[in-house]
């Protein structure tokens, strides 16, 4: 069994080491932690190098994957794009359908918080642009609603006028 014994005439930091085979060697305080030394690391990695991952890993791989996705989107057809967006929307709906009331409130709270932070950081110019876009969208929405309403009532008026003219023709015997 290996035992460390203080050698005669030496300080407590210096010891005589008796190994398994009874051989003796001296170990000084500075070399006690050989496993923590640069020398040990050098020898260990020289003899037993760490396994390297093959190919590209980490951020570079993620960046390349994102570039590939972007390139695919550039060449995708309108049908593929609508299918992809439809799938994404369906997944979002499924996820929201499964979430609890607490998760929903947390998600909405996070969204509101992010919006507030974004608005707090925006410049006056960005704010004016955002408000102008909001006003433009509101105007477009009102115009679309008005167009639908006019179309709806216009179709009704056509039917009424057609019926009146048919009735008049029948009465007149035409």
From TrEMBL:
Pfam families registered for this protein in UniProt? STPRs
STPR domain ranges (all copies): 80-146
Name of this chain's protein = STPR domain-containing protein
Ranges of compositional bias, category Basic and acidic residues: 73-83, 92-107, 115-128, 141-150
Which stretches does the entry tag as region Disordered?
Answer: 69-155
Provenance organism: Araneus ventricosus
């Amino acid at each position: 069994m290996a035992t460390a014994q203080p050698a005669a005439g030496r300080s407590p930091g210096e010891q005589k080491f008796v190994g398994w085979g009874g051989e003796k060697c001296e170990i000084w305080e500075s070399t006690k932690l050989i496993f923590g030394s640069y020398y040990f690391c050098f020898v260990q990695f020289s003899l037993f190098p760490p396994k390297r991952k093959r190919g590209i890993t980490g951020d570079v791989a993620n960046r390349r994957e994102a570039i590939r996705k972007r390139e695919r989107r550039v060449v995708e057809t309108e049908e593929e794009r609508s299918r992809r967006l439809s799938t994404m929307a369906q997944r979002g709906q499924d996820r929201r359908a499964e979430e609890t009331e607490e998760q929903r409130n947390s998600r909405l709270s996070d969204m509101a918080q992010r919006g507030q932070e974004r608005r707090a950081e925006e410049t006056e110019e960005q704010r004016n642009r955002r408000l102008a876009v909001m006003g433009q969208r509101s105007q477009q929405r009102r115009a679309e609603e008005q167009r639908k309403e006019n179309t709806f009532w216009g179709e009704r008026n056509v039917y009424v006028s057609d019926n009146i003219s048919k009735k008049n023709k029948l009465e007149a015997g035409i």
